[in-house]
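Incident log, structure service

09:12 report received: a user says their structure output differs between two submissions of the same chain.
09:20 pulled the input from the user's history:
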Amino acid sequence: MNGKHLVPDSRASRFVEVKSKFGAEFRRFCLQPSSLCRFCDFYTLLQHMHHIPDVDILVGYADPCGGVLPISNDNNYHRAMSISRPLLRIFLQRKGKHSEMSAL
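09:34 re-ran on a clean worker, output below:
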């Protein structure tokens, strides 16, 4: 050992890594949860990241137990941000399409 100790970076704990999937496309980015306080802002960011500004989408996330839960309001959004560290897995689907997320 060279005497150096790994010390957690306090800045890293303030960020959530987001991996979002829309169709066959994936996007990865880091997000400071305090920078987006409302679900509608997060929704707009996801549309921007996937270059789908005029597409209505359903948003879901993978919970720690492996299920997919909806994010459709501020409460769901804050819950997803608080329990999905270090990685928040997001699944996007066009509204009206039938699949697993249609039940969301």
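09:41 both user submissions now match this output. Likely a transient worker issue. Closing.
09:42 reviewer note: The radius of gyration is 15 Å. The longest strand covers residues 87-94.
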